[in-house]
UniProtKB/TrEMBL annotation, chain A:
Keywords: Cell outer membrane, Membrane. This is SusC/RagA family TonB-linked outer membrane protein. One of its GO terms (cellular component) is cell outer membrane. It comes from Chitinophaga silvisoli. The keyword Membrane applies. Residues 28-159 form the TonB-dependent receptor plug domain.
TrEMBL record, chain B:
It comes from the Bacteria. Belongs to the SusD family. This is RagB/SusD family nutrient uptake outer membrane protein. Residues 100-201 form the SusD-like N-terminal domain. The lineage of its organism: Bacteria, Pseudomonadati, Bacteroidota, Chitinophagia, Chitinophagales. Keywords: Cell outer membrane, Membrane, Signal. Residues 372-468 form the RagB/SusD domain. One of its GO terms (cellular component) is cell outer membrane. SUPFAM superfamilies: TPR-like. Residues 1-19 form the signal peptide. It is found in: Cell outer membrane.
Length: 949, 503
């Protein structure tokens, strides 16, 4: 009762509406900071929303961990408050994408619960935003300041929301548009190596340090120099890299009157990477209608469907991770084409089908009762499902074949009702809006896998389907003891009410106030509701210049429905290498959630406050459009798993109280510089962001997270590397200093250092190198990132040159570290011992690293030292395009029904300038590690034609 | 105005139903109010405790890491982290050692057992099907599980915090308690649990009438703690403390009553067969944690086979650990030993039950080899279903021989030693040939229990009896026989201090 009273009061007092006080924008100029038009972007063979956004919007940083088409990539808006300590964090930190008012639902990371290796989400692991066809997009708007974004409540918690506006039907005429391109991705050239190279590399260490016993376990594949598989020519790249075709086609038909109109669009796109014959195919269709059956009464609907099919990479790692089983790893893939080809031939007997289907749509009714009153009801859904069917034949893995099937879906339905009132009394304008929103999410997956089928011809796990027999649902040919099945569900509901009131005086001053109440089913029952206000104010200095400020608060949703349960019981019988034990003696066993963390009562909503002050203006006779926003974003009360009381069995406790600040500037500027014949339109967008950890739960000053690899320390950033400072090598035992205090020689956590060990800086001078001597260095996320885009037009020709850059960012060259750490990566059956075919390449300069004793128990080539930490700044010429508008040609029939016809050519991923010595500095995982597990950005060339009639 | 009113009505209606909209239960976590309601919940919780201890023992093959490797017979082939454990270099910078230094998983067992005992009364009240006797036997098992876990904690870390209630929601840091205090608690608890435990389940034992949780005795064979289990562990606890008089009393109980629990002396062939003693679950497992093949419980790790087997037994080039030939020859020095013996003339093994590929540089220890379902010689898939055997009848017999030898009952001790020697078809003990009886008993233990996770703990007891190895005595006296405590344990609980030896 208490609840409803408060909401009524909220409705009565606070409901209002914003006055859309946007600055005037010159049509000839590209849209400002937070908006991008897509008509130029559709020329390029981009295959996801992330690629469209990359380098195009200030404050939106795109982190692609691999250039594999349609694979997962992440968006970071205005820094992050999530510390990215696990693969799950990556999902929790993503901003919401809203397609024509439909908040899109993405994969939920709960499949990681049953995955021992968390490199990929289970199933097709496709990027759901790769399902959007750029040709259907009219514009993309990035709402970062809470003055606008708080309308979306908790969906805006990760830095704001991204609005996609699809194209609207035309009114009063018929329009048909085509866009098609064809192109090729070009295979890159690498410096390949063979066993001789590797042998020479290792021999140095063996000569210097190896004992006789250690020499005896020298790997077999390097021992026999007559073995052509390893010692023969290293020409595997001939099979690994292939030039591959890419293409795209889209047709849009639109027609109608002002009472009824429609748009229909269909498209197909193939994206490819030259590496490992990976590719993605997208088929999509969209249908949109608007009807005005009565004056003031508008009905609109949209329905869009996409199918995405992926051919994924063939990393051994990903295959073993899918199987959760590793074979003997003593003989890696050979670098010689003839032998590598035999392996690929066996691969061809496997299948790995990855499909994603996505359907979404909305239905909206707008009732304009009078000039002052209108009612809008928008309801819609988003559904995407992923299917993956895998079969690996027995010839690929020691006569053990493997089969798995995944079917998972994410479903969201929502209803959004608003009532608006607006009125103008002389110079006083008032808008009041009240709304309610209900959103129900459901994520679910079924997953089953089986090992050791009877032969390679049976590739489907059939079950007995007669439910009257005792063998109902038992497998027909697979051994049921080697068959594992899983099912999990995740539900979430969000119910919101809001009211907004805006006042405008004389078209010069405006302010607004919004109050909202959000109820989440994942919050605990005594804490379902979160109330938050937002204020905005604006001052129009002149017709082209406006100052605006906003302060707002939005809640952050709990990442899992189990937070709502309080202290809870779950299955916790798993252990290393066996993540999916739920039973003992064939009975399910449950206990408190010891490994996954204690959740007590009193978990409260985390929330974000953001202050944003901005200035939009045009300068120099409207030739320059400038937008600057300064923001101060504070995430309060964030949940963090804090290690606690091992003596009560728990690994962690989830606690509120982490506080993270992101402060920075978004700047974007566009200009037109024109002579009589040439027009140059440069545009720059840039984000500067500083991230600071303000507090940890329970007043902690620092906390070691991510299995001991990262440190969160109050006053520092949450995205820093935590490393020992490396200062060379101890060449002689006599070089090793002794502690002044104890007189003992310097040691690493009790292990005395010896000749051949690294010289690590003993920061606290206590004579022991340990975690206290690790320092926080560098940032995983760039402090500065942005894009520099240019369009140069001459007559009908337009040249587009687009750069993408980041600065003040570090990368851990883990691939290099792994190469040196060969001693710990042989003779094990363990992911660290897996050598991909790309093991046979050389990237970077081996000579710049000291020759440590790799057998030393201090693990000298560890990644938690700054030896492998490098500057990851880069500047890329990302895309280049040349288009010619034929309609501007002198010979063009002005009366032709074709009123737009352009031919174009593009080139992508042309070059990268970087001090980084490894591979591509852009391709790192969420922890800033370049592990070498990324397909490279390959050069892509296309030619295309675009036509409107 | 009328329309606004309508809208308000709509909102009021909605806010009344808000509770309905937002109140949904998670499908992968059970809240406190939905648990502890029926006998199904107690079974699930009881199984959970066993499963947690299995997980703790199987995690990184902990049972063998703590008990078998250090200064034992096994050597690491290539793995640096295992080399460090064998050498006793337990602070080496490898993730494995850091994980093994953390006692959390064992305390999870203790917390779960404490939770069970605190809440089981609620189920008794709420579910009439949950009988008084069922509750009694469940509680006895939980007391056993908690006590055994504490015993193992003390064996590995020495002084550990003694926590006997769940402190749910009000967790307070506790310092380490003296190991003597903890072991006194262990002994008290085991003695209290023993009378309530049956010899077997679902066999109308007076302590447990009728079908236990509606399942037959086959389903429960060797799975749960029984009377013999309690006495066997009591014998181990007493021997660990050097209280050999007590140990002999507890051990005698096992030796007098083992047939009631379905135990028997295992022949050598049965011991090493894939479908033999280590196979699945059996009444003869006095304490063991099984991985039930038939119920999709077999696993890739958590078995000795993961470390010891390699080609030609399974597809793996080299094992992780092996026993060098010299060690094998010096340990198995008796002719015609069914476990392993060498014909000294030909140099060819006469029996190879414990080892295969003896004549290679790296012999394979294949005493335990329950590959897949155990009934196969197919090397292709390294999934195992062997049971983690904590103790068995032969172990208790030799322990009893040790106890009797120490307290001076030489002849009884020799008889027990000879029971095992007869079983393995080697000559009976002759003081003139083999010398000291204690030495002979420990030699026999070394052979019989090879690869079963006892070597290190045997070495400690042996040296405590003999006191003739100054280096080892120094290790015992300085606390070096215990594992260091993981850094993260000390960070989160400042009252925990590092073992002085590892500081």
């Amino acid at each position: 009762m208490h609840l409803s009273v408060r909401i009524i009061i909220t409705c009565l007092v606070l409901y209002g509406h914003n006055v859309h006080a946007q600055s005037l924008r010159k049509d000839s100029l590209p849209l400002s900071a937070d908006s991008m038009r897509v008509e130029r972007a559709v020329l390029y063979p981009f295959n996801s929303l992330q690629q469209l956004l990359k380098g195009n919007a200030a404050g939106v940083y795109i982190q692609e961990p691999s250039a594999e088409p349609a694979s997962m990539s992440s968006i970071v808006m205005r820094g992050t408050a999530v510390p990215y300590t696990s693969a799950r964090n990556n999902y929790e930190a993503q901003p919401t994408v809203i397609l024509d008012g439909i908040p899109l639902i993405a994969d939920h990371p709960f499949t990681f619960d049953i995955q021992e290796f968390q490199y990929n989400h289970l199933g097709p692991a496709s990027n759901v935003y790769a399902a959007i066809d750029p040709n259907n997009i009219a514009s993309i708007e990035v709402l970062k300041d809470f003055g606008q974004a708080a309308m979306y409540g908790p969906r805006a918690a990760n830095g704001g929301v991204i609005l996609i506006h699809t194209k609207e039907p035309v009114i009063g005429k018929r329009k048909i548009s085509f866009n098609t391109y064809f192109g090729i991705v070009q295979r890159p050239h690498l410096f390949t190596t063979n066993a001789k190279f590797e042998n020479d590399f290792r021999q140095v260490f063996y000569d210097k340090y190896a004992t006789e016993e250690e020499s005896q376990t020298y790997p077999l594949y390097l021992r026999d120099s007559t073995n052509n598989a390893y010692y023969g020519p290293a020409n595997w790249t001939d099979l690994y890299f292939k030039n591959a075709p890419v293409y795209g086609i889209n047709a849009t038909l639109s027609s109608g009157t002002d009472r009824a109109n429609f748009l229909f669009a269909a498209g197909n796109q193939r994206s490819a990477n030259a590496a490992d014959r990976s590719r993605a195919d997208r088929y999509n269709a969209m249908f949109k209608i608007n009807m005005v059956p009565l004056k003031g009464f508008t009905v609109s609907a949209m329905l869009s469907a996409t199918r995405l099919e992926r051919k994924r990479n063939r990393w051994l790692r990903d295959r073993f991770a899918e199987m959760q089983y590793l074979p003997d790893l003593s003989s890696p893939l050979p670098p010689n084409k003839a032998f590598y080809g035999q392996y690929l031939k066996e691969w061809d007997k496997s299948f790995d089908d990855n499909k994603t289907n996505e359907v979404n749509g909305y239905f909206s009714i707008n009732l304009r009762i009078s000039d002052s009153w209108q009612l809008t009801s928008l309801s819609g859904f988003d559904y995407n499902e992923g299917l993956r069917d895998v079969f690996y034949p027995s010839t690929l893995l020691e006569t053990v074949n493997y089969l798995s099937n995944y079917f998972g879906y994410n479903q969201r339905v929502f209803v959004n009702n608003t009532v608006q009132f607006q009125h103008q009394w002389g110079k006083h304008g008032v808008k009041v809006e009240a709304g309610e929103n209900f959103q129900a999410d459901f994520n679910r997956y079924n997953y089953a896998y089986a090992y050791k089928g009877p032969n390679d011809l049976i590739r489907v796990n059939l079950l007995y389907s007669d439910n009257t027999k005792t063998n109902y649902l038992s497998p027909k040919s697979f051994n049921h003891a080697l068959m594992f099945t899983f099912l999990d569900k995740q539900r979430h509901r969000l119910l919101s009410f809001y009211g907004r009131m805006a006042y405008q005086y004389d078209n010069r001053f405006d302010f607004s106030l919004m109050m909202r109440a959000d109820g989440s089913s994942s919050a605990q029952p005594d804490n379902w509701w979160f109330y938050s206000p937002t204020f905005t104010a604006g001052w129009r200095l002149s017709t082209t210049s406006r100052l605006h400020a906003s302060w707002g608060r939005v809640g952050r949703l709990m990442p899992d429905d189990r937070f709502g349960e309080g202290p809870q019981y779950t299955s916790d019988l798993s252990f290393s290498n066996n993540p999916v034990r739920f039973s003992y003696n064939g009975f399910p066993g449950i206990s408190r959630a010891y490994s996954s963390g204690y959740i007590g009562y009193g978990i409260r909503w985390p929330f974000t406050d953001q202050l944003d002050i901005g200035w939009n203006t045009t300068l120099l006779h409207d030739r320059v459009n400038l937008a600057i926003d300064v923001y101060h974003k504070m995430d309060h009360n964030m949940l963090l798993e804090v290690p606690f009381s091992a003596e009560y069995g728990y690994a962690y406790q989830f606690k509120n109280g982490m506080k993270v600040r992101n402060m920075g500037v978004d700047l974007s500027a566009n200009a037109i510089i024109a002579t009589k014949t040439i027009t140059w339109q440069p545009g720059i967008n840039l984000n500067y962001n500083r991230n600071t950890l303000m507090a940890l739960p329970g007043g902690l000053q620092q906390l070691v997270v991510a299995d001991g690899t990262r440190l969160l320390k109050v006053g520092n950033s949450i995205d820093q590397f935590w490393v020992l400072e490396n200062n060379g090598i101890y060449n002689r035992d006599s070089d090793i200093p002794s502690s002044h205090a104890s007189g003992k020689p310097l040691n690493y956590k009790g292990i005395p250092l010896q000749a051949g060990d690294p010289k690590w800086v003993d920061q606290n001078n206590d004579g022991v190198i340990d975690d206290k001597d690790k320092v926080l260095k560098g940032h995983i996320l760039p402090v500065i990132s942005g894009g520099f885009n240019n369009d140069i037009s001459w007559k009908g020709l337009t040249l587009g040159v687009n750069f993408y850059f980041t600065a003040f960012r570090k990368v851990m060259n883990a691939e290099m570290a792994n190469h040196f750490d060969f001693v710990n990566r042989e003779g094990k059956i363990d992911m660290s011992a897996v050598k991909e075919i790309t093991f046979w390449t050389k990237a970077g300069n081996y000579d710049k690293y000291p020759r440590y004793n790799p057998w030393s128990t201090v693990d000298p080539y560890r990644t938690d030292q700054d030896l492998f930490l490098e500057n990851g700044a880069f500047l890329k010429l990302r895309t280049l395009s040349l288009s010619y508008d034929l309609t501007t040609a002198r010979w063009w029939h002005k009366k032709s029904p074709v009123h737009n016809l352009a031919v174009y050519a593009t080139a992508s991923n042309l070059f990268t300038l970087t001090p980084y010595t490894g591979g591509d500095p852009e391709l790192v995982d969420y922890s800033g590690f370049d592990t070498g597990y990324a397909l490279p950005f390959t050069k892509t060339y296309t030619i295309g034609i675009k036509m409107d009639l | 105005m009328k329309r606004l009113f309508l809208l308000l009505l709509l909102l009021v209606f909605c806010s009344v139903s808000c509770k309905k909209l937002l109140d949904i239960d998670s499908t992968h976590a059970v809240s406190e109010e939905n648990f502890w309601n029926s006998h199904e919940d107690t079974r699930t919780a009881l199984i959970g405790v066993y499963g947690l201890l299995r997980a703790a023992m199987a995690d990184n093959d902990a049972w063998w890491m703590y008990g078998e490797l250090r200064m034992g017979d096994f050597q690491s082939v290539q793995r640096q982290d295992l080399k460090a454990i064998v050498k006793g270099n337990l602070r080496a910078a490898y993730p494995l050692l850091q994980t093994l230094s953390n006692w959390r998983r064992f305390y999870a067992v203790i917390n779960a057992a404490n939770m069970f005992m605190e809440h089981v009364g609620e189920v008794r009240e709420r579910d009439p099907k949950y009988s008084e006797q069922n509750m009694k036997v469940d509680i006895a098992q939980m007391r056993f599980m908690r006590a055994y876990t504490y015993f193992f904690l003390v064996s590995v870390w020495g002084d550990v915090p003694l926590i006997t209630s769940s402190h749910d929601g009000e967790f307070e840091n506790k310092a380490r308690d003296d190991k003597a205090t903890v072991l006194a608690f262990v002994e008290k608890e085991l003695l209290a649990a023993a009378p309530d435990l049956p010899y077997k389940y679902s066999t109308d034992d007076p302590q447990q009438l009728g079908q236990y949780y509606n399942e037959t005795s086959t389903r429960w064979a060797g799975v749960l703690a029984r009377k013999l289990t309690a006495y066997a562990i009591l014998a181990h606890v007493a021997a660990y403390q050097g209280k050999y008089v007590d140990a002999s009393v507890y051990g005698q109980f096992v030796l007098d009553n083992y047939s009631k629990g379905g135990s028997y002396y295992v022949g050598t062939d049965e011991l090493v067969r894939g479908t033999g003693f280590f196979h699945w679950k059996q009444d003869n497992h006095i304490l063991g944690f099984n991985f039930d093949w038939g119920h999709v419980d077999a696993t890739f790790s958590g078995h000795l086979e993961e470390l010891t087997l390699a080609s030609p037994v399974v597809n793996k080039a080299l094992p992780d650990i092996y026993i060098p030939r010299d060690t094998i020859l010096s340990v198995f020095d008796q002719p015609l030993d069914e476990r392993f013996s060498l014909d000294t003339l030909t140099g060819i093994p006469t029996s190879e039950r414990y080892f295969t590929s003896f004549n290679t540089q790296i012999p394979i220890f294949n005493k335990v080899k329950v590959i897949q379902d155990g009934n196969t010689s197919d090397p292709s898939f390294r999934i195992y279903s062997s049971t983690i055997i904590i103790t068995r009848l032969e172990n208790i017999t030799l322990l009893q021989a040790e106890a009797l030898a120490v307290i001076g009952q030489q002849q009884n001790a020799i008889d027990l030693l000879n029971t095992i020697r007869d079983l393995r078809r080697i000559k009976r003990y002759d003081v003139n040939v083999e010398g000291d009886l204690i030495d002979a008993i420990f030699r026999e233990r070394r052979k019989e229990l090879m690869g079963e996770g006892w070597r290190w703990f045997d070495l400690i007891r042996y040296n405590k009896i003999k006191q003739n190895d100054p280096a080892f005595m120094a290790l015992i006296n300085s606390g070096g026989i215990y594992w260091p405590v993981a850094d993260e344990v000390m960070t989160q609980n400042p009252l925990i201090t590092q073992n002085p030896y590892w500081q």
